[in-house]
Design a protein that fits this description.
The chain has 6 helices and 15 strands. With 359 residues, it is of the alpha+beta class. The mean pLDDT is 95.
Length: 359
């Protein structure tokens, strides 16, 4: 049996002007790893955790330049303030369901101490980074079932992967119970390559989609929401109470300020899919560069590193790369998701991409 198409391009759709990387995923940025732990128990538990590793080494000892951006702050992000202050990330980036945030943060701290016993004793503490979306329509939020075992499983999956490993999308990890534009959402990823004369860099995006109203959906430029609605969808859709997490990776030699400029452009990618960034939507972006590692114990006070000599020229390619990758990652999350029955019999249906093709 030939498997059903799972991604946007499997349906002969394409987006934008820049080419995708070989895997069209955040893992096209060399060294980046992704791992999931999916937790499904009966109908009431549909949740999980997804981790993104900027590199396969010890992130506490070899940090990376990073930035965070709040598009709309209706969320429970953990660890963002220190990233804003210091411009670096020193732990795996984790995504999960809303009330699992602190359990996942505890799991990350435990893992960091396990690999760095000097933390909080002979050196400083560790800043763990966790983002979330509310998967409560399909999942029992009060159960808060994600703990150390799930964090360890996701980390193990990421650390056990190789360079350029494909990323599983749809109803996995942090996307197990999420909703996107009234349809089943989940995890999605995509990448773009900038022209050689403009750096030849890679930009990758990974999203956890849980936002949007059905009538707002724009699919590859098609205003699908005008004519396609999920079964039993109230008319009009209720006020948006979702969220989205966006993780951006690049091998371009950007500092924290420049990475923040990329973060801001993620909002344009979301808007291309129809989002207006609703009042009750927590929309956050994390970006990092793999071009440089910041040593926890540097040998000298200064170092020599590559930096952008012509920021304007570089950003002329990097900005559209972010927008295109984020848009396609959102649509990939919809294409890969499957119909799910969850808490109290609630159903989120898979987007019928074939109906869009026939239209």
């Amino acid at each position: 049996m030939i498997p059903s198409p799972k991604r946007l391009r499997d349906h002969n759709f394409s987006l934008g002007h820049l080419p995708p990387g070989p895997g069209n995923a955040i893992t096209d940025v060399a060294g980046v790893r992704v791992g999931h732990a999916t937790l499904i128990r009966g109908e009431s538990i549909h949740t999980g955790v997804t981790v993104v590793l900027p590199h396969p080494g010890n992130l506490f000892r070899e940090k990376v330049p990073a930035a965070v951006h709040t598009i709309n702050g209706f969320g429970k992000a953990c660890g963002f303030e220190e990233v804003r202050e210091l411009g670096q990330i020193e732990s795996p980036i984790s995504l999960t369901g809303t009330l699992n945030v602190w359990r996942v943060a505890d799991g990350l701290a435990t893992d960091a101490i396990r690999h760095n016993p000097e933390i909080a004793r002979s050196t400083g503490t560790v800043n763990v980074v966790v983002g979330e979306t509310n998967d409560g329509y399909l999942n029992d939020l009060q159960a808060r079932p994600v703990g150390q075992a799930e964090v360890d499983a996701a980390l193990s999956a990421a650390r056990g992967s190789r360079d350029f490993s494909p990323v599983v999308e749809g109803c996995v990890g942090a996307g197990t119970g999420t909703t996107c534009y009234g349809w089943k959402g989940g995890i999605g990823t995509a990448s773009r390559l900038t022209p050689t004369e403009w750096g030849g860099w890679t930009v990758g995006a990974l999203v956890q989609t849980n936002f949007g109203r059905a009538e707002e959906l724009i699919f590859a430029g098609i205003p699908v929401g005008d004519w396609l609605q999920p079964p039993d969808q109230p008319q009009p859709s209720p006020a948006e109470k979702g969220s989205v997490m966006v993780v951006l990776a690049t091998d371009a030699p950007l500092d924290s300020r420049q990475l923040h400029r990329l973060c801001v452009r993620a909002g344009a990618g979301l808007a291309r899919t129809g989002s207006h960034i609703g009042h009750g939507s927590g929309d956050f972006v994390i970006a990092f560069s793999t071009a440089r590692r910041i040593l926890h114990w540097p040998q000298a006070l200064t170092e020599t590193a590559a930096f952008l000599a012509d920021e304007g020229r570089a950003m002329a390619a990097l900005f559209p790369a972010v927008v295109e990758a984020v848009e396609e990652a959102v649509l990939n999350s919809l294409c890969a998701a499957t119909t799910t029955t969850g808490r109290e019999g609630h159903i989120r249906y898979a987007l019928p991409v074939e109906d869009i093709l026939r239209k």
